[in-house]
Write a structure and sequence with these properties.
The protein is of the alpha/beta class and 277 residues long. The chain is built from five helices and eleven strands. Strands 1, 2, 3, 4, 5, 6, 7, 8, 9, 10 and 11 form an eleven-stranded mixed beta sheet that branches. A hairpin with a 2-residue loop joins strand 3 and strand 4. Helix 2 crosses helix 5. The longest helix has 25 residues. The radius of gyration is 18 Å and the shape is globular.
Length: 277
Amino acid sequence: MADAEIGVIGGSGFYSFLDDVTEITVDTPYGPPSDSLFLGEIAGRSVAFLPRHGRGHHLPPHRINYRANMWALRSLGVRQVLGPCAVGGLRPEYGPGTLLVPDQVVDRTKGRVQTYFDGVPLPDGSVPNVVHLTFADPYCPTGRRAALAAAGGRDWEPVDGGTLVVIEGPRFSTRAESRWHAAQGWSVVGMTGHPEAALARELSLCYTSLTLVTDLDAGTETGDGVSHEEVLKVFGQNIGRLREVLFDTVAALPGSTTRDCLCTDAHQGWDLGIELP
């Protein structure tokens, strides 16, 4: 199977992220990923792109097979994952067009499977052990530094750090929910990004989230509330700049054999019970 060292899981507007791609189908013990994977090259680095919602955006956030997506990327050799996503701003200063690179995540989803180590036998008969991995710092520090450096110096100064709260979707928040999120001191709200980061840690992958604010969330703004059309419009207006940041981030990430961050030691001392791809 073809190899890639860096994975990009794209949301709305990123289905044509790479040019001159090779499309491949990957099978996983957890079922099919959201779509085929598209392999190409950026700055001399081999990259696998996966449409998070599938081509045509047919998968709502709560029905994405997150386990299959992350497993498929690792099975291709990916060890660094970038997860750009559209979010709502929970503070007035985080208006549409803000790029925020979070350092924390809060899970407010309800029914998503978010571990590989659940004791359920795999098709090959192996049984994952129950494994409790540290997740105090959910994002790769090296990846975050690379993303911030790639975005800095442009006409688009990124926000360094903040908390992404992930809701179940597919509906947007009520004003009361939005105000509660803001009152907790959280920064942005979205419907993806979790359990991606947690699953990446279980697979010893480096995971970096880049959040693009497309709207002020319902409790922050005073209009009629966010609409899907508004999200797509703002995302489309910023897709070129975000693409440039992602390209430069890809170029700056360390190679698979030179990683020295906390992500690589996630399994130290644990018997997984299964062989990772």
